[in-house]
Amino acid sequence: MELYIEWRGDLLIREDGFHIADNIILSELVYLDLRPVFDHIKKNEATLQECGRILKETGTYCLKTLTGGHEDLIYKICESRRFRDIRVREYEDIFSEDQEIQFAAAEFEIDAGRSYVAFRGTDNTIIGWKEDFMMSFTEIPSQKYAAQYLQRIMRPFRKYYVGGHSKGGNLAMYSCAMLPEKKRNKILHIFSNDGPGFSPEVLPAEKLEPYGDRLTKLLPAFAVIGRIFENSIGEKHIVRCDDNTLMAHDLIYWRILGKDEEAAESFEPVSEWMTTSIDEWVEKISYEERRLFVEDMFSALMAGGASTVQEVTGKGFIRVVSAAATSSPTSKKLILDLASEAIAAGRKKDDKNGDHA
User: Fold this and answer.
1) Is residue 187 within 8 Å of 151, Cβ to Cβ?
2) Other C-beta atoms within 10 Å of 325: how many?
3) pTM surpassing 0.70?
């Protein structure tokens, strides 16, 4: 991202066109917690330059990705000529454990006639991760909110790019699929950045067919999340990343080459293995078994009072393994495979941090 800002940061989007790289950056910016900005200015819109300045002055910067941080890069984006005058409108941020929803979205007004509507992906909350798993058997609350949000914010004489990362990519596709036919021509393009697809029980693939080549799916070479419930609609790009573990899911690690992503030739072998494990789980157990497994696993995770992924201790993982032990053999295999890879990714991240210490 930083190289792209150095190379294209002095050119406005209306001068240079909207690129895949711009989609990646705006999908990252929607992870910013902007509630302090709008509470401070008492208005419902602000430029990205204003957002960055207020977050810096008030000390309220928070990037709600799994790892967070990257203040210098995010401030640099907000201060660049390319992005600083983009107006952030219709910012919405909803979290409820009772309703099991983690949802956030914003409209980035690019110029007089175009906007990018960005849906935030899964943050570090356990509820957010539970929603991801619930997609395997039901429509989730965030999908309903996303469909309502997109229709509500649409204005006459304006066209829209719609996108997001992780769950946000799924919400981008879902919200566009739910649009009335007369509004579909207002969609310039849909971007799903490593976002999962849809269980047939939730959204049949044909719902996205009207968008055809207006849908682009970007997947890191080590892709897991975005390969769940894959379908053949739209174009698919495999992105080279600076990390070859589950951490490659984080947009920060995606390599940008020129105006677009740096392409990889194929998926990593471990990504193929994990995708196969998840596909087997989905195919071999019933709708009801999926529901019970997700409820058992996340009840176990939250049993100790944890609300974020970082708060889950070693005992929390033991509870998850215990919950898996009473599940079907396919469910047991899935959770143990994912847990082992998550631990490996965490160790690799710690090793990298140690190298810089």
Assistant:
1) no
2) 11
3) yes
